[in-house]
Amino acid sequence: MQTLSRLTGWLILGLALSFQAAAQAPAPADPVKDQQKRSVEQPGNNAPVWRDVKSGQPNYTSVPGREVGVLVQQQARFPGQEHMTTAGEAWRKFRNGPITFYGGWLVVLVLAVIAAIYYTQGPIKLHDKPSGRMIERFTLAERWAHWVMAISFCVLGVSGLILLFGKHVLLPVFGATLFAWLGSLAKNLHNFVAPLFIVSLLVFIVMYIKDNLPEKGDMNWLMNGWKMFKGEHLPSGRFNAGEKAWFWAGVVVLSLIICVSGLILLFPNFDQVRATMQQASVVHAIAAVLVIAAAIGHIYMGTVGVEGAYGNMRDGMTDETWAKEHHQYWYEDVKSGKAGVKTAAKPGAAPQTQH
Amino acid sequence: MARMKFLCDAERCIECNGCVTACKNENEVPWGVNRRRVVTINDGVIGAEKSISVACMHCSDAPCMAVCPVDCFYKTADGVVLHDKDLCIGCGYCFYACPFGAPQFPQAGAFGLRGKMDKCTFCAGGPEEDKSEAEFKKYGRNRLAEGKLPACAEMCSTKALLGGDGDVIADIYRERVARRGSKGAEAWGWGSAYGQPPKGGAAPAAAPAKKS
Question: Sign of the CA dihedral A183, A187, A189, A190?
Answer without folding.
Answer: positive
